[in-house]
Amino acid sequence: MAYQTIQQEYLQIPVVTRAYTTACVLTTAAVQLELITPFQLYFNPDLILRNYQVWRLITNFLFFGPVGFNFLFNMIFLYRYCRMLEEGSFRGRTADFVFMFLFGGLLMTIFGTFVNLVFLGQAFTIMLVYIWSRRNPSVRMNFFGLLNFQAPFLPWVLMGFSLLLGNSIIVDLLGIAVGHVYYFLEDVFPNQPGGVFLTCHNISLFVFFFFFKTFKNIKKIVTTPNL
C-alpha cells in the first residue's frame, strides 16, 4: 500500500521534472556506490572532441557532489522550481520546457568552456530559479525564516548564501546570466517596440549555429599539434 502511494506520488510529478531529478539522484547514487566516478562525468572539451566522450555534455549537469548538505540543498531547489515552472508558465507546453533545458544547457556549455567549470548542475538550478522568480515578481519569499523579500531577489540571496558557505559565485552568476538571456528573449524582447517574437525554432537555429562554430574553433585549438 505504501509502495503504491509512493508510486502514485512519483508519477504525479510532471514528466520533465521527474526525468531530470531522477537522473540526478541516480547519478549521485551511482557515484556514492562507486559504480562510476566523477572523473567519468565532468565536462572536458578535450575528451569530448578527441575521444568522442559526448556523454559528458549531459552528465556534467547530473552530478551535484557527494550526498550531503550541498546535494540536498540543490535537489530541493531543483525539484521545487523545476516543478513550479513546468506546472505554471509551461503548463501544456512540454516542448517549450524541453527547449528551455536545451537552450540553457547549450549556453552554459559554451560559457563553461571559457571559465573552466566542470560541473554545471548548480548553475542550471539557479537558471530555473531565476526564470521562475522573474515570472512571479509579486510572490513574497521567506528564506529559512530569516529573510523576507520579493521573488526576483531569490537568485541573489542564494548566491550570497553560497558565498557564505565558501563557494565560488561564478557558478551562480553563470546561472543568473543564462536565465536572464532566456527571460529577455522569451518574455521581454517580443514586447518591446519593434520587437519580434522569437520562436523556439529561430532561437535554436541561432544557438546551435553559435555552438557549432565555437566548438569547431575549440577543436582546431585542441587538435593542433604542439611544435
Automatic annotation (TrEMBL):
Belongs to the derlin family. One of its GO terms (biological process) is ERAD pathway. This is Derlin. It is found in: Endoplasmic reticulum membrane. Gene3D superfamilies: Rhomboid-like. It comes from the Eukaryota. Pfam families: DER1. Functional component of endoplasmic reticulum-associated degradation (ERAD) for misfolded lumenal proteins. May act by forming a channel that allows the retrotranslocation of misfolded proteins into the cytosol where they are ubiquitinated and degraded by the proteasome. SUPFAM superfamilies: Rhomboid-like (SSF144091). It comes from Cyprinus carpio. The lineage of its organism: Eukaryota, Metazoa, Chordata, Craniata, Vertebrata. It is a multi-pass membrane protein. Its main location: endoplasmic reticulum. The chain crosses the membrane at residues 57-79, 99-132, 153-183, 195-212.
